[in-house]
Amino acid sequence: MAADYTRGEMNIASQKSTFDGFMAITLWSSLLLGLTLFYLTLVFAVGMDWMGSLFGVAIIGVVLGLLTSMKTSWYVTVGGLFVFGLACGLLSQLFNVFLAG
């Protein structure tokens, strides 16, 4: 059996696609976690305004997507998280106005 093996003739397409998928998931999760932690650090530790932090982090997310050659789905995800954060922040301020007033 071992004598039948010839180096470099094995089809490695499935292994390559598995590794490429693993690296894509690792890159996505690392960038999203980094952006989330950076946003939370700006808002809670630095005391920056939440909306300014949200705009800054969204711009950084787009720049990171360009630097890492991400596909369109990355920009849709960053945009969706921006809209979600904006809606949650505005809803929080609306409740704060009603509770305080």
Task: Fill in the keyword field for this structure.
101 residues; mainly alpha; single chain
List the helices and strands and how they pair.
Blueprint: H1 13-45, H2 50-67, H3 72-100
Helix pairs in contact: 1-2, 2-3
Describe it:
The chain is built from 3 helices and no strands. 79% of the residues lie in helices and 0% in strands. It has one domain.
The shape, in one word, is rod-shaped
Structural class: mainly alpha
Give the percentage of residues in beta strands: under 5%
Largest sheet: none
Total strands: the figure is 0
Number of helices: 3
Give the structure's gist in a few sentences.
This protein has helices at 13-45, 50-67, 72-100. With 101 residues, the chain is mainly alpha-helical.
